[in-house]
Amino acid sequence: MVAEMVPPPRFQHARFGTYDPDPAQPSQAEAVRVLEAFAAGLTAPAEPRKRWFGRAAAPAASTAGPAGVYLDGGYGVGKTHLLASLWHAAPGPKAFGTFVELTNLVGALGFRQAVEALSGHRLLCIDEFELDDPGDTVLVSTLLSRLAEAGVKLAATSNTLPGKLGEGRFAAADFLREIQGLSARFRSVRIDGQDYRHRGLPEAPPPYSDAVVEATAARLGGTASLDGFEELLAHLAAVHPSRYGALLDGVGTVCLTGVVPVQDQSTALRLVVLADRMYDRELPVVASGLPFDRIFSEEMLNGGYRKKYLRAVSRLVALARDSARGTG
């Protein structure tokens, strides 16, 4: 499982040199400089490392400098691209995963074995650090404390609730308290800017008709999925979110008919996870019904999960735009 913790397909070729900083946002170019320096520090000669639970010592990354970097910014500013670029620039052994994937790893291996499996790494990158579940947050925070004490360097991005993301600070006090004892080990890297997915690009195409969606799925054959939107949402309720990526195995294009507003928050959060996994895999979305920027209610967009919903809309619109090249 640890060997499979690598950047998703969309970011397999992400490099610092392929990141396109917005000239109007100097913090973006500064973030590249900070992360390049952090990556360079990971190539320092190894030192003896303390190992937990009585096993023999193993090589460690240099303990000079901060134990990690934390990428702080809104959605669509390229945090995941930069996190993946850091992973690609760093020497191994190294691991990259979302917060959910990390909790799944601990659930599958157990806490002790997860520490053992990761403590030999030079770098652990965690995308989309979540604050939704206090239990999971404390579990992973404890894991990160153990790994940092063992010399593993850490890098993270986060999706925090409104009011908890500190402007120019390390994700505000509430997040710092959740990652007990780690705050002093991290350097905060603030990344300002607008959503790059829509910067200077045309608007997403309007929804297609059911006939176009069905014809596209038929033309693409086995590489396309075809589902009614409401039926898909109902199916997601019966599948653990950790398995949403597996649902997309072998799929090249996602075809959906009858997109409608999402009625409840639990369903909306499941759709957010699916949107992330589709975006990771660069899957164009051909859809009929309601435009994706209207599927979440104003109440949802103004509530505690605002950032998640806005990210999902941004990504779904980008994937709908991608689909314009393959329909007709």
Number of domains: 2
Q: Structural class of the helices, strands and pairings?
A: alpha/beta
Q: Note poorly predicted spans.
A: 54-64, 161-172
The proportion of residues forming helix, as a percent range, comes to 25-40%
How many runs of DSSP E, i.e. beta strands? 10
What share of residues are in beta strands? 15-25%
The CATH superfamily label of the largest domain reads: P-loop containing nucleotide triphosphate hydrolases
Keywords: ATP-binding, Cell cycle, Cell division, Nucleotide-binding
InterPro entries: ATPase_AFG1-like (IPR005654), P-loop_NTPase (IPR027417)
Protein name: Cell division protein ZapE
Pfam family, one: AFG1_ATPase
Structure description:
- There is one protein chain.
- This protein has 328 residues and is an alpha/beta fold.
- The two termini are 40 Å apart.
- A five-stranded parallel sheet has the order 4-5-6-3-7, sandwiched between helices. A three-stranded parallel sheet has the order 8-9-10. A two-stranded antiparallel ribbon has the order 1-2.
- Residues 54-64 and 161-172 have low confidence and may be disordered.
- Strand 9, helix 10 (265-280) and strand 10 form a beta-alpha-beta unit.
- The protein is globular and about 60 Å long.
- It has helices at 26-41, 79-89, 99-109, 111-118, 134-149, 172-178, 210-220, 229-236, 244-247, 265-280, 298-301, 306-323; strands at residues 47-49, 58-60, 68-73, 94-98, 123-130, 153-159, 186-191, 224-228, 253-259, 285-289.
- The chain has two domains: 2-197, Rossmann fold, CATH 3.40.50; 202-323, no CATH class.
- Helix 1 (26-41) packs parallel to helix 2 (79-89), helix 3 crosses helix 4 (111-118) and helix 10 (265-280) packs across helix 12.
- The chain is built from twelve helices and ten strands.
- Pfam families: AFG1_ATPase.
- This is Cell division protein ZapE.
- Keywords: ATP-binding, Cell cycle, Cell division, Nucleotide-binding.
